[in-house]
């Protein structure tokens, strides 16, 4: 048996071969392929050389298939159909998909963006699953490892930024949350009054101090930090039952205080923080994935 060198075989020759074997005529094959008859004849000769077989043989009635070509024809049809499927763009049907959308997001981003996404999944893709990971870690580690499709974050990747794609979702100013019975609940919040209070801060990634404390240092001021909390849901309990004040992005404040004896209000004007930008990130490996493109369209609809 000859040991074929596939690198020397032009894929286009297989397309010509299939037409030749099906119509069993060089001129008719050239017409169907929209090629000149001499070009198809030259292709046939190359194919004969490659296969070591005449493939088409003359008979009294014209051309017929060689024994090798008879065996080759059904396999060639299957091969070219398989190649078409490989090259063709994948189809994605949300209604029938059973895919799992894997997202890394911590408490803040989960509350702000993922309930709406889940509602859309239930409406348009009832058999899909949403898998949310929130363990304390770098927002981009799981993206880099390919363990999640998306990361929701107000941070930016520190390295290898060319491998990540990004979609802006929202920006939000910081506000402060407190009990509706807090002494400052119904008064204007001056910087001095704010700093006289007892403060907690949320450190989802176990990092600190908070951005407010960095800013206060530029004013040569400090606040009384009495507790560090793991998420904004637990912060709501602390604020509701004590005189604690906790700062949080305005985008989630209405949801966090809903149904609770809590309010939120603007920070003192002296604390002039830049708004936090929240972005959807994904790795280049998933940029063209049909399912991921569809999920990104759901996120994009939230920003309109």
From TrEMBL:
Keywords, ordered alphabetically: DNA-binding, Transcription, Transcription regulation
GO MF assignments: DNA binding; DNA-binding transcription factor activity
InterPro entries found in the cross-reference section: LysR-type_TF, LysR_HTH_N, LysR_subst-bd, WH-like_DNA-bd_sf, WH_DNA-bd_sf, YidZ_PBP2
Lineage of source species: Bacteria, Pseudomonadati, Pseudomonadota, Gammaproteobacteria, Oceanospirillales
Entry-linked Gene3D superfamilies: Periplasmic binding protein-like II, Winged helix-like DNA-binding domain superfamily/Winged helix DNA-binding domain
Protein name: LysR family transcriptional regulator
HTH lysR-type domain ranges (all copies): 9-66
Family classification: Belongs to the LysR transcriptional regulatory family.
């Amino acid at each position: 048996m000859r040991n074929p060198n596939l690198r020397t075989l032009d894929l286009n020759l297989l397309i010509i071969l299939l037409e030749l074997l099906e119509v069993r005529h060089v001129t008719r094959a050239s017409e169907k392929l929209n090629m000149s008859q001499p070009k198809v004849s030259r292709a046939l000769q190359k194919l004969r050389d490659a296969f070591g077989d005449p493939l088409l043989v003359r008979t009294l009635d014209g051309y017929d298939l060689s024994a090798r070509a008879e065996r080759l024809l059904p396999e060639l049809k299957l091969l070219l159909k398989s190649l078409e499927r490989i090259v063709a763009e994948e189809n994605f049907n949300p209604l029938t998909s059973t895919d799992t959308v894997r997202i890394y997001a911590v408490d803040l981003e989960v509350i702000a963006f993922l309930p709406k996404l889940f509602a859309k999944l239930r409406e348009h893709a009832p058999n899909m699953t949403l898998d949310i990971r929130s363990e304390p870690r770098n927002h981009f580690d799981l993206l880099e490892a390919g363990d999640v499709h998306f990361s929701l974050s107000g941070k930016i990747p520190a390295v290898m930024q060319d491998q990540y794609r990004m979609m802006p979702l929202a920006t939000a100013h910081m506000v402060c949350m407190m009990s509706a019975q807090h002494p400052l609940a119904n008064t204007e919040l001056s910087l001095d009054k704010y700093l006289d209070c007892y403060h907690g801060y949320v450190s989802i990634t176990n990092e600190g101090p908070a951005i407010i404390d960095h800013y206060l240092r530029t004013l040569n001021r400090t606040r009384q930090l009495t507790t560090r909390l793991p998420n904004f849901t637990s912060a709501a309990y602390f604020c509701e039952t004590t005189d604690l004040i906790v700062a949080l992005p305005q985008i989630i404040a209405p949801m966090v205080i809903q149904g609770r004896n809590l309010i939120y209000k603007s920070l003192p004007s002296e604390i002039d923080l830049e708004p936090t930008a929240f972005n959807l990130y994904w790795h280049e490996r998933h940029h063209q994935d049909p399912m991921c493109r569809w999920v990104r369209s759901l996120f994009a609809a939230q920003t309109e």
